[in-house]
Specification:
The protein has 303 residues and is an alpha/beta fold. Helices cover 50% and strands 10% of the residues. Helix 1 packs across helix 8, helix 3 packs parallel to helix 4 and helix 6 runs antiparallel to helix 7. The longest helix is centred in the middle third of the chain and has 29 residues.
Amino acid sequence: MTGATGGFGRVIVFRLAGAGWDVIAGARDTAKARSLVADAAEAGLALRTVQLDVACEASCRQALQECAEMTGGGPWALVNNAGIPQAGAVADVDDEQARHLLEVNLLGPARLCRLVLPAMAARGGGRIVNISSGLGRVPWPMGAWYSAGKHALSALTHCLRVEAAHLGVRVSLVEPGAFSTPMLSRALTDLDTLRDPANPGYDNTTRLFTAVDRRVPVPEPVARTVEACLTARRPRPRYVVGRDARFLIPLHTLLPLTLTDRLKHTITGLPRTPAPPHPCTPAPATSPEPEPGERPGRVKETA
């Protein structure tokens, strides 16, 4: 289980441990891992942990080697939960920030899937659960990179499900809506860091995320869904969790893009048309008159 120390991860590992699963919790921060184990012990639950940074290939390999030693061959199931937001306009998110998001939200899960498959195949089966997001199918302005990473993870999961079927490995995708986790507060920090006073989308999106964060439900439904992915004889290929996701995903699919674009402009405050020129702004230069023999509208080539 990746990303086990907070958000969905913490709730999921507690539920699975309470149901009798042998849970190995992956955690990037060793102090948070110790705290997780202590909290589980207070609740009468047993957890084991491995240090795991999903964005680092060496860390992934080391963590799975430790899991293999703990389990006598490797985990029967992998739950890819670790993820980060990266809110902000596409024009304001730099390459390094985008690359880090893709490492955590896409390449890390893909790497772990690749690394666990041989042992699962040798055992004759296993389960993989990738936790995406409703925003992977409802791309949202001011959060394009998060939507892009989750959309890509969804596509990868659908392909892996077909590719791994003959190995006896069942692959499921979980697409939660908004729940009470630190993800929204981290997205608010991103917005504050990248804020461009000239872009009204920052202020409106901050107000939207703040309002949503006050009203979101607790994440137990996501934990129940992950447990269903692991226990069902025939787990479904995809689970959409949360009333908002179950409403918005089909709505976004059915409505024309012109209408969903208009709705997104309204909610985010992003303008649909260019602002009128300032009175003091000089008029744009007009095209020169065509020379004799030159066809109008054609740009004259120069060296």
